[in-house]
Amino acid sequence: MNTSRIDAFGEDVFRNSTYIDKLDLAFSQFFVRTPTGSLLAIATGMRADFPQLKTNLQGAGFDIASVASLIVPHFESDEMGALPDFMAHNAALVAYAHPICAHALSDIFSVKTKILKDETPVTINGEVVVPIHAKHVHQWDSLVVYVPRLKALFSSDIFMSYGPVDGEGGTLDNIVGSIDKSGYIPSLEHLASALKKIRKYDIESIFPMHGAPIRTHIPETIDGLIEHCETHRAVVAS
């Protein structure tokens, strides 16, 4: 059985999640209430799930048309599949993405796109965000998003874990086990490179696409995951 819900984290972060019991995996989309009052979406979810997402947002007091901008972490159905539905509710919607992804979105959906450069802050609807390219961490066009005002990292498939979205995110062992089980992370070398970039930011909350948020022991978790990548690579190389 699939279950869907929306949760608030503080006053400005909202997560819509759909848990698929058969997969033991949740798929989440995030909405940041920006200083202008509009919503910045991070990932669209899959197109078949859009009606429930819209209903969930309405239940939380938001009109889907208030989503003025959308960040697509990479070109995949759970990250951009419902883009046409968002566009149908706001013709002025702007999609932000990695250069590879942005060109594809523009060509296929005729959406206005803006390119996000690696670790180059950009202001979207009054909200400063820092895109961090995470090449080949799942896809070549992958990125994660840091929001300095909230000290929050929206980490896409990095830090994923199986299970529901309740409570706190998985321990390091659970994250490593989930990565190994899923096969979502094709390159430990590239994952380690992305984590080293992420490590220097002041992060108080990590919101993964799959699994519960992480809000404790964040530096230790990042360091442990880097160590896992480097140790595993050394074992394979030998």
From TrEMBL:
Q: Which Pfam families match?
A: ODP (PF19583)
Would you say which domain of life the source belongs to?
A: Bacteria
The family database entries (SUPFAM superfamilies) matched by this protein are listed as: Metallo-hydrolase/oxidoreductase
Boundaries of every ODP domain copy: 36-211
Extract the InterPro entries matched here: ODP_dom (IPR045761), RibonucZ/Hydroxyglut_hydro (IPR036866)
Q: Which parts form a coiled-coil structure per UniProt?
A: none
Q: Which named protein is this?
A: Putative flavoprotein
